[in-house]
Amino acid sequence: MSAVRLESVAMVAPDGTRILDDVSLEVAQGELLVLVGPSGSGKTSVIRAVAGVDEISSGRVMFDDVDVTKVRIAERDVGMVFQSAALFPTHTVRNNISFPLRIRKVKEPTVRKRVAAEARALGLTEMIEHWPQQLSAGHQQLVQIARAMVRVPQVLLLDEPLAHVDRPTRYRLRADLRQLQQGYGVTTLLATNEPGEAMALADRIAAIEDGRIQQVGPPQDVYAAPADTHIAWLTGPISFIDATVQPDTRGFWLTHGNFSLRAWAPVLSSHVGAKVRIGLRPDGVRMVPSSSTRAVVVGNSFDSGHPVTKVEIGSAIVSIEALNAPPDTDIGIRIDHFLVFGPDDKLIVAVS
Questions:
Q1: 101: closest CA among 148, 41, 33?
Q2: Which candidate, 11, 39, 15, places its Cα nearest to that of 23?
Q3: Residue 314 and residue 256: Cα distance in Å, rounded?
Q4: Residue 316 pLDDT greater than 70, yes or no
Q5: Three-state SS string across 28-93, please?
Q6: Using CB atoms within 10 A of its CB, is residue 9 exposed (0-12), middle (13-18) or buried (19+)?
Q7: Domain with CATH 3.40.50.300 in the chain
Q8: How confident is the model at residue 179 (pLDDT cuts 50, 70, 90)?
Q9: Helix H segments across the chain?
């Protein structure tokens, strides 16, 4: 399998709009790297640049140490899976999966063996003679994944492959996809705007916005210390409380109305009197009945696909881990982990 490297890649539209701006990124051999960003951030353009579908304006795309920038898509040895299942409606599941092998004139015994192996791995054996229109959206995506993997490409490119399937199917497909990728050890680049998908699948995450890579790292590292509030939103549920930094003999207080949160971080000394934003992840807040920090339960809901309980702290509404407590219940809470962002939305400090 090939490592993938983008070196200062730019992509400019005919009207002069910069779609990608100085993108440098490396995907190690056998790694699954997830590009996470909002709609229009440039993540699909990165996928298409690696595939050779769209021409880049400057920079280089490398597979291992080979420059493939000018190499045609058919010669790059990549497998691609799109948001919508681009299956041939007049081909059965079997023939859709086998298509990449047949156009390469692979011998029939090998075709049968490879198709059977992929169908078995992805639970498609019983529907191998079905037509695409007879399949659920989830099974159509599985067929597309099987077709991309049947010839074991050097690089697998996935553009929001689970975007149009229901939540239970999405969870199952995540597990199937991760198991298949690890089994083959294929170098994989996946684009998504779903925080749960990024956290569940990635070896590393690359956050992209406005055509630029903003932060790269292991999922838990980016989740625990996102470079800014936008990346915080992209990597999981988070609530924000506007606060002011106040000095204390033993550190600092972050105050919001009658709510105060102690922070020991020395870096806050340069922000005394300034407005900041406290970022609270649900898993950083827990119920402690004896705590002097009080909150009132507002209700239960979902945040980025996670069940949470909404509580009011001071005059702010934040999400915490789901509780079995009815609305208007007064509870004590302890904040174990939190993030502090400056007025420019950049991370000042992560406090644990």
A1: 148
A2: 11
A3: 7
A4: yes
A5: CCCCEEEEECCCCCCHHHHHHHHHCCCCCCEEEEEECCEECCCCCHHHCCEEEECCCCCCCCCCCH
A6: buried
A7: 4-226
A8: confident
A9: 43-51, 93-102, 108-121, 137-149, 167-184, 195-201, 219-224, 229-234
Q: What are phi and psi of 273, to 5 degrees?
A: 85, -10
- CA 319 to chain centroid, in Å, comes to 21
Contacts of 266 (CB under 8 A, 6+ apart): none
CATH of domain 4-226: 3.40.50.300
φ/ψ (deg, to 5) at 90: -95, 10
Tell me how far apart the alpha carbons of residues 87 and 249 are, in angstroms, rounded to a whole number. Answer: 66
Give the separation between CA 334 and CA 302, rounded to whole angstroms: 21
pLDDT at 304: 66
pTM for the full predicted model:
0.88
The reported pLDDT for the residue numbered 260 is: 92
- Return the DSSP state at 232: H
Separation between Cα atoms, residue 168 and residue 55, nearest integer Å: 37
38 vs 211: CA distance, rounded Å: 11
22, amino acid identity: D
